[in-house]
Amino acid sequence: MKHRRSRREFLSTAAVLAAAAALPGSLRAQATRDLLRGTEKDMLAAIAKFTGSKPVSKGRVRLVVPPLVDNGNTVAISVDVESPMTEADHVRAIHIFSERNPEPVIMGFKLGPRAGKASVGTRVRLADTQTLVAVAEMSDGSYWSGSAPTVVTIASCLEDL
User: Fold this and answer.
1) What's the Cα-to-Cα distance from 129 to each of 112, 133, 158, rounded to whole Å?
2) According to the model, what pLDDT value does residue 28 have?
3) Whole-number Å distance between alpha carbons of 33 and 35
4) CB of 122 within 8 A of CB of 151?
5) What is the pLDDT of residue 24?
6) Which domains does the chain have, with CATH numbers?
7) Which position has the higher pLDDT, 145 or 155?
């Protein structure tokens, strides 16, 4: 699910990075971080790819993220989906998307009726303050979503630049 850049995007990115190299250290680091961060457009494109551009309804998905994170290196998140998890009605997959990380798809989980409960939890790295979105694919082909904002005081993913 890597985003492939066109030749034009590559050349414009290279030109901006070359210009940023002439800036003082702190300004150069900030300019590079801003250039490499994802956008809401990238996240929406990744969601459309996951769903096959089918409509996504809000609800049934509860995404839990701390509202304030001191360090983006390890952020605990969990996703719960309302589903009976029976053979006829279950969650097939849950994907978590980021609007500001360099890669919009943070994680994906495949589930089935034998999972018993549509609930997952993990730790992720977050590049910046943003809203995360979780999308669940149901066995009937429908898609449901939930979102949660979080403020990251010390960014991850790009902090070494």
Assistant:
1) 33, 13, 13
2) 47
3) 5
4) no
5) 66
6) 1-36 (no CATH), 38-154 (2.60.40.2470)
7) 145
Q: What is the DSSP string of 22-61?
A: TS-HHHHHHHHHHHHS--HHHHHHHHHHHHTT--EEE-SE
Would you say residue 37 has pLDDT above 60?
yes
Count of beta carbons in the 10 Å neighbourhood of residue 101: 26
Residue 125 structure tokens: 């790295």
pTM over 0.85: no
